[in-house]
Structure prediction request, 407 residues.
Amino acid sequence: MKYDILLKSGHVIDPGNEIDAVMDVAVKDGRIAAVAAELNAADAAKVIDLSGLYVTPGLIDNHVHCYYTGGAAKAWAGDFSLQPDYFNFPGGVTTLVDAGSAGSYNFDHFRASVIERCKTKVFAVLNTANYGMASLEGEQFPEKNDKQAYLRCYEKNRDILRGIKIAHYWADDWKQLEQAQELQQELDAPIMVDFGNFRPSRPYDELVTEKLRPGDITTHCFRAPVPVVDENGKVYDYLWKAKERGIWFDLGHGCESFTFRNAVPAMRQGFIPDCFSSDLHALDVNSTLVDMANLLSKLMACCEMPLIDLFRRVTSNPAKMLKLDGCGYLNVGDDADIAVWSIRDGDFRFRDGAGYLTGKQRLECEMTFRAGEVVWDFNARSIAQCYDELPSDYGIKLPDVRVTPKN
Prediction:
């Protein structure tokens, strides 16, 4: 057959290719074979009717924590990380970027025990702290970091590493950022900054308008301590200037790193983060975040946004930001990483760390394909027959036998 799978009559939204129309998507040998209107169903071994549903590239979540084998108790390099395949496919996510859970001393272990053993595509930004996020205290002493080990690790793993991560810094100076910029000079890689807390001596506005360089990333941009709107509810001018400088603003929702008080007025005034990442980890998966589908639904409640612009921030934008080739687009020849969506109308409530917001729509991920394989199928759309249409012995495989009871 010309195609292994034909996804028929779905509304395709592929922001990177500016596609927003009803089209068919064909898959062959785990790759995108065609995206076009009215492909011939007779050419496919399997046809799945997606009428009334939306079809997007598999989503990219550019800020997660998945170094679950790290072994550290109550740390993102350990207990707080999540196994990639179990928590992301239900939200349409097929590509992850681990946001600095590992450093140069333990990245080889992260790669061998997680990245190379899961179906999900996993990239990473490398923490400047030697052991990454094995403890927050380990991120407080940039002068103790092993620069040469960092450079060796980065060069060895350039196929996976996509940036330099600094995080959770408490001191009153810029030393952690300055060290990252020294590495940046040698590696030509973007810096992702997750300070979380700010000080009068290193305020957020100075970070994004003076310190960071074009192409660098500020994550948790709607965190409560970030000055987003003034006393009149107007977005501060410095944020627009930072965007004009080429700074990438990343949502990084997390457990309490997102507030409606910042997000709603900013987004309704047009200040929308470039990327909608989740910061998925063990502390938010069952609380404020849940998954990417819930996060996108929450952001739809924050402001009206065309679906193509919503999905742009979890497909082509993060792909551009971190140079994730082969991800975030429905390009012929790329891995068939695909997500299928429905939109449910109703009255819904979404939460941040303390309050809630109401919305009228909820996105639900119906199916996720990773390299052409169905890895999530919420409503069994890939199953062709009802159970009572199958042979009476279905489900029995040799050497199993079914013995008829005597009574």
